[in-house]
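Hello K.,

You asked for the raw outputs rather than the summary table, so here they are, unedited. I folded two proteins back to back in the same session to keep the settings identical. This is the first:
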Amino acid sequence: MKAIFEELLKTKKNFVFIGEAGSGKSEIAMNFAMAFAEILYGQARAMLPNISPRAVHFFDMDQTKPLFRSRDVREQLEQAGVVFHFDEQFMDAPTMVGGVREHLADPGSIVILDVGGNHQGARMIGGFAPFLNRGETANYFVINPYRPWSREVLGIDGTLSEILKVSHIQKVDILSNPNVGADTTAEEAATGDARLREMIGEYVEVGPICVREQLAKEIEQNTGCAVIPLRLYLKGIL
C-alpha cells in the first residue's frame, strides 16, 4: 500500500479532506500524514545526514464539534516527525490556524488539511481556493455510506454541493470509508462500499476503499479495488 502514497507524492503536495461530519476525515488524514512522514523521513535517513527532507505539515482545522479531533493524538503525529498546527478554541468561537497559506505555497512542504464537517467546517478553507484548485493539490471528499446523510444519492449530493459552494473547490476525488465503528467487519465494509459505488458510480468515479488495516487484505481480495489500510488513532467512528 506504500506505493499508493509514493505515487501521490510524485505529483501532489497538498491534501485536503472534506465531507459529512463523522465520515472519518480525521482518521484518514492522520494516516496520510503518517505514511508521508515514513516515506519522506525514511528516504532522508538513507541519504546524507545534511540533506533535509520535505516537511509534512498537518493542519487541524475542525471547528465544528468537540469530539474525535486529530489534535487529541497530536503527540503521536509529532513523534513521527509531522509538524502539527492547530489553534485553541474558546467555547464555540471559531478560530483560524495560522500558516496555512504559506505552507500551501511552499514547494518544500507537504500539507494536509483536516477540515471540519459539512459546509460549516468547509467555510474555513474558502479563502485558500486559489491553492486548492491547483494541480499540486488533491481534494478528497470522504463518504461513509453508513452515515445518516450519506445513505442516498440526494443526501450525498446535497452535502457535497454545499461544501463546494463555500470552499470554492472545483474538483474532488472520492474516498470510500464504509464503517459502523471500530468493530466493523469485512462483510460490513464490503457491503457498504458496494452500495456506495452502486449509488454514485454512474455520476462520479469512486476511489480506493479505506478500511482498518486488519481488514485490508481480505477487502482487496474480495472486491478487487484499491485499498488504503487505516491504523485507528481515534476512538469511535473511523
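The second followed immediately with the same parameters:
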Amino acid sequence: MFDHMGFEVREFSKSRSFYEKALGALGLKVVAEFVEWSVVGFGKERPQFWISAGKPAGGEDELHVCFAAKDRAQVRAFYEAAMAAGGRDNGKPGLRPEYHPNYYGAFVFDPDGHNIEACCHQPE
C-alpha cells in the first residue's frame, strides 16, 4: 500500500544512531542521505523510511510505525538493539493474540517518543 514514509526528529544525530542500530537488526540500512538537509532514508535497496531534522509532530505515542520482521528472532533482535540504542520499553517481544494467534511483536519508544514496533505473523 505505502511506497515510503518519513517524519521529523528533534535530535537528528541521536535519532539516526537509534534507527541505524534498531533497523539494522531487521536488515535495513541507510541507503540515501542528504547531508545538507539532515535527511536520511533507510531500506534494503531503496529508501522507504525517512527521518529528517525538525520538529516532531504530536506528543509521545501519537505516531506509530511497525516494521516487518522475517521471524520472531528478528523481532527480539530489533527490541534488544533498540533498547541498547536508548529506546524505552513499550512492550517486550511476545505474542499479541488479541490481534491474531500468530502476531508476535515488540514495541519501543524512539528518542522523540514515537511508538516503533517490529512484528512478524509467522508461527514459531
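Residues 12-24 form the longest helix (13 residues).

Happy to rerun anything if the numbers look odd on your end.

Regards,
P.
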